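Data availability (excerpt). The following record was deposited with the supplementary files.
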Amino acid sequence: MADSAFVDASVYVAPNARVLDNAVVKQNARIEDNAIVRGDAQIGDNARLTGHTMAQGNAVIDGSAWRSDYAIVDGYAAVTDQADVSDQAIVRDDAAISGSSSVMESALVGGYYTVSDHAVIKGMSIVQGGESKEKHGGASGNAITYGDFYDDMGYNLVDGSFSGYLSIDASVNTFKDGYAIKSGSGYARSPIK
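Predicted structure:
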């Protein structure tokens, strides 16, 4: 542990784990295995970092959130509540992962994108973008992205499974093919016929 870092006495840091730079780890957080917390990252509550996970930049991880394997949380990203980031997933920039949502496998969540409720971003999905914390895209409800799904246009996914490189924008505005349909304040995957 670096002298410049702060770690509460109630925190568990495994012998091979590292807390570096100006990182802050407090309350009942656990930094296990070979996990690294660095930069100005803040870990708190009952958050748990395992495997070779890295939290860096100004990342905030709290609640009962869990990061495992080789996951990375970077920038000003926030992972809270019971959210899970695992495998080789990356959450960066100002992205926010909350609720009981998951980002896994090789997925990338960036920009101001939000993932909440029970949404799952997985596979090789890349979701990012948005202009600000007030105007951005996201996945919520029971939305799932997988395969090589891509969205940087600020759409809100609220239900169903989305995959492939057909963008929500192209489906709704250009092709009008029914791949995605308007559902309340967002978009849902249309039922397969």
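Summary of structural features: The first helix runs from residue 168 to 175.
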